[in-house]
Amino acid sequence: MHEVSAAITIKPNASRVLKSWDFVPERSGMVALRGMSLIDGTSMKTLVPTYYKDCELMWVLQMYAVHRVDLHSQLRQLATQVEGPGRSCEVRVRAKVVDPDAQTQKVTTEDGEVLQTDLVVAANGVHSTAVKHVLDDDKIVQAGDTGWACMRRLVPRDEILADPEMAHMIVDFAARYFTVADGAAGLICIRVESALCSVSTWIDYDLLYSPFCLAIHAGHFP
Predict the structure, then answer these.
(1) Given this model, what pLDDT does residue 217 score?
(2) Cβ atoms within 10 A of the Cβ of 34, count?
(3) What does DSSP say about strands 175-180 and 36-40: parallel, antiparallel, or unpaired?
(4) How far is Cα 176 from Cα 156, in angstroms, rounded to an integer?
(5) What is the pLDDT of residues 139-157, one digit of tens each?
(6) Measuring CA to CA, how many Å separate 160 from each of 34, 135, 151, 163?
(7) Which segments of the chain belong to CATH 3.30.9.30?
(8) Which residues, including other chains, have CB under 8 Å from residue 211's CB and lie 6 or more apart?
(9) Which residues of 95-120 are buried (b: 16+ CB within 10 A; e: fewer)?
(10) SS3 letters across the chain
(11) CA torsion 207→209→212→213, rounded to 10°?
(12) Which residues contact 85 (CB under 8 A, 6 or more apart)?
C-alpha cells in the first residue's frame, strides 16, 4: 500500500463519523488543518488568510489532512478486529465482482463465487459499472473526459523547509491553496510522522504546457 500522493482532507462532518468508530487521528499521523490560506497564484497575494478558520469552534470537531494509505490502514484494522461491538469484517482482495444483482443483494465474483448480504455498496468511484445494474439499463452513460487533469506528487517536508522562498508556506503544518485563471494548486502537509507534503495541480488539458503548469512541474510556483 504505497500510493503516490493520495492525499485526503477530512472535513468536520467526516471527523464525527470517524470518532463514532473509535478512530484515533494521531494513530494515522493525520494533520490538523488550522493555518489554511487562499493565495493568488499570479501575484502571490493572500486572498483569504484564514481559510476554514476555527473549525473546532464552529463545528466542534477538527478538519484534517491525511495520506489515503494511513486512513485506510486504521479503518481496516477497526473493521477486522475481533474486539468491540458487532461482528468483525472479512476483507477479500483480488476478488473482482463481475455481476452485481441489485434486486437480490448478490454479487458474483470472477471465479464464480456468489455472495449475498443485506446491503451491497459499490464504492469504486465515478468509473463504477454498478450503476447500470442498479438502474437496469445498459445504456447508462459512464463518466467521461471532463477536460481537466489532476497531477499529484509527494515532497519531503524537510526539502520545502530548506528552501528560503517556500519554507514559510508550511510552518506549523499550514496548508496553502493557489488560484490562477488556468487552474489551481494545493500544498498540504498530510503525515506528521514522516512529514510528507502533497502538491496537487488541477488544470485544463489544453493548458497542460502553460507557464503555470510547467512551473509546477519544475518544482516552482509561479
Answers:
(1) 45
(2) 17
(3) parallel
(4) 16
(5) 766 667 777 777 777 888 8
(6) 19, 49, 19, 5
(7) 17-74+145-217
(8) 222
(9) eebeebebeeeebeeeeeeeeeeeeb
(10) CCCCCCEEEECHHHHHHHHHCCCCHHHHCCEECCCEEEEECCCCCEEEEEECCCHHHHHCCCCEEEEHHHHHHHHHHHHHCCCCCCCCCCCCCCCCEEEEECCCCEEEECCCCEEECCCCCCCCCCCCCHHHHHHCCCCCCCCCCCCEEEEEEEEEHHHHHCCCCCHHHHHHHCEEEEEECCEEEEEEEEECCCCEEEEEEEEEHHHCCCHHHHHHHCCCCC
(11) 100
(12) none
- The whole-number pLDDT of residue 25 equals 94
Handedness of CA 13, 17, 22, 25 (dihedral sign): negative
pLDDT band at 222 (very low <50, low <70, confident <90, very high): very low
In this structure, the chain runs to a length of: 222
**What is the domain class of 17-74+145-217 according to CATH?**
alpha beta
User: Whole-prediction pTM value?
Assistant: 0.76
Instruction: Tell me the three cell numbers of residue 56.
Output: 473546532
pLDDT-above-90 percentage for the chain: 21
Instruction: Report d(CA 179, CA 160) in Å as an integer.
Output: 20
